[in-house]
Specification:
alpha+beta, endopeptidase fold (from Nostoc punctiforme), six-stranded antiparallel beta sheet, two-stranded antiparallel ribbon, 8 strands
Length: 210
C-alpha cells in the first residue's frame, strides 16, 4: 500500500505554507520532547508543531521518549511513525515543505528530522538541533549523506485542510513498556545519498533504494 493510499489518496500539503510555518519556529530553544514555538522544541516537536499549524491535530499520542530513541534495540520507531502519517515526497530533489529523515551515524537508527524551506540548487532546511535550538541550515554534502528518507505533509483530498481520523494504535504508541512493534523493522540503508539520488526516496514508504 502506498503512502497516498494509506492516507486516503491525499496529495502533499502546500510546500510554501509548510516552509513559512517552519521558519516561524527559528530561534526556538532546543528542549527535548517539547513542541512549543518560541518556548522549546526538539526535531520531532518542530515537525509536530508545523503539522498542527498546517494540517490539523497531531494524529497520535506521543509517549515519553529518550534522546537515543531506540538505538539499543535497533528498532526504526521514528521511521515507522513517519511512514504511517506522512506521504512519499514528490519530485527528484528536495523541495520546500519536504520532511527529511536523517541517520546521524552509520549503523544507528534514524532519529533526526528537518523541514526543507527552499529547494532547487540552494536547498536549505529548518531543524531543531541540540545545543543550537531551531536553526536553518544548508543541505550540505555532509547532511545529504545522512538523509535516508524524504516525505511531505498530507493535504486534504480536496481542500488540503482535512486529515484522517486518529488511528487506534500507532508506532509511537507501540513504544509503551512491554508493547510489541506492529511490523518488522525497516532495514538500514547505507549512507551516502546525494541530492540527485533522492528521487528514489519515497518508494514503499520513503525507503531509499540505492
Amino acid at each position: 500500500m502506498s503512502g497516498a493510499e494509506a492516507l486516503g489518496g491525499r496529495n502533499c500539503a502546500d510546500g510554501s505554507a509548510v516552509a513559512h510555518e517552519a521558519r516561524r519556529w527559528l530561534g526556538t530553544p532546543y528542549v527535548h520532547q517539547a513542541a512549543r514555538r518560541g518556548l522549546g522544541a526538539d526535531c520531532l516537536g518542530l515537525v509536530r508543531g508545523v503539522w498542527s499549524a498546517v494540517v490539523g491535530p497531531w494524529p497520535e499520542r506521543v509517549p515519553p521518549y529518550t534522546a537515543d530513541w531506540s538505538e539499543a534495540s535497533g528498532e526504526e520507531v521514528l521511521w515507522r511513525a513517519a511512514r504511517r502519517h506522512l506521504l512519499p515526497a514528490r519530485g527528484a530533489v528536495p523541495q520546500a515543505g519536504d520532511v527529511l529523515l536523517f541517520r546521524m551515524r552509520r549503523g544507528a537508527v534514524a532519529k533526526h528530522l528537518g523541514i526543507v524551506v527552499s529547494g532547487a540548487e540552494a536547498i536549505r532546511f529548518v531543524h531543531a538541533y541540540s545545543g543550537h535550538g531551531v536553526v536553518e541550515s544548508s543541505l550540505s554534502p555532509a547532511w545529504q549523506a545522512r538523509v535516508v528518507a524524504r516525505f511531505c505533509f498530507p493535504g486534504g483530498a480536496g481542500s488540503g485542510s482535512a486529515m484522517r481520523a486518529k488511528a487506534p494504535g500507532g508506532e509511537f504508541a507501540s513504544r509503551r513498556k512491554g508493547a510489541t512493534e506492529a511490523s518488522r523493522p525497516v532495514g538500514h540503508p547505507r549512507l551516502g545519498a546525494r541530492v540527485g539520488n533522492l528521487a528514489t526516496i519515497g518508494k514503499r514508504g520513503a525507503r531509499w533504494q540505492p
